[in-house]
Structures are given as structure tokens and as C-alpha cells.
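The pair is listed for reference:
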Amino acid sequence: MVAPLSTVLFVPKDQQPVFPLWTQAPWESNIPQNKHWTDCPAAGSIVIMQQPPHQTVALLGDIVATRFKLRGVLGAVIDGRARDVVACWELCKDGGFQVHSRGLSSVGTSLEAKPWAVDVPLTIGGLRVDPGDILCADEGEGVICVIPRAKLEEVAALLPTLKEADDGVLKDVQNGVDFPTALANHPKHYTNH
């Protein structure tokens, strides 16, 4: 799955404008009053959702996942917890939707958190993630990478060379060539840089 990101930032449930409880949060919510937050991410995007540290509630379950999928959102990545694993797995079976999370919880969002801002920059694992950046995910391995949208053309230009070198290393190894020699045979392989 490769698609642009939409972001949703959650805050402690007691967050109020002018009294931010989490320093990453903007002072005021930017979610339109006449719109539910699940209707904000664009169809064709992957939603990355972030909750404050140390919370144990789930940000996504079967209802939110179903709403996203029916709206054409391609998946959800949760920097936090998810729930309703079996129901979410069923939604993902056709390959048209994916869910990835750092953890699981049976507890609903509203006990600790609430959605506060959409399409704002997030910092995840020390890395800045901006709305519109491109997320690459694999159904078996999880999130592979996020490509900043300003670097997309540069990355796209590198991919054919890297793919050719990677395929060459794999073919050599399949034919019994030892790994160091296979890498030496394909100097443009990403591990050689």
C-alpha cells in the first residue's frame, strides 16, 4: 500500500483551547464543528493517528475502521493502540484496507483521549510526518517507510536502480553465491551505500 498521508492528532480528553495538556497539540482544535473527525481524511489516503504517550485506550476499532473503508480511505496506522482485532482483520481480508498499530487495548478512546486536530504535522519515533507525505506499507511487515513529499521525485528516480540491484543480489544468492560476493556483484545495492 502506497498513498499520501492524512493525520489525526488525539489529545487528553480534558484538553481545552488555551490550556494545552500535550505540548504537541495546537492551541485550538481544527476539526470543523459540523463534521465528524472520521470524515476529514481524504479518500485514497492512509490515516496516521497519534495519541498522547502513556495512554492505554484504543484510537481505532471496527466502527472507525469501517467508516474509513467505506469512505475510500486505504488504511490506518496508529501511533498508539487499536481494538476489535478480529473485525478489523475481516475488513482487511480483501487487501483494499489495512490497519497497523503499536499495541492493542479493549478500552474505548473516550476514557482518555479525544480527536483534536487533522492534517497537522506529527512527530513519531523522533521523525516528523507531514500530511501529504507518502506512506509505504506491507500487509505482512507493517509500515516500511514514509517519504517526505518534497523528496518523492528524488526517491522515485532511485527506485529502478535499487530494485535492479536487489533482484540481482537475490538471484545470485538463490544460485549459491555467498552474500558478500553477491553484494560486491551489485555495487548499486542499497547496503553498499
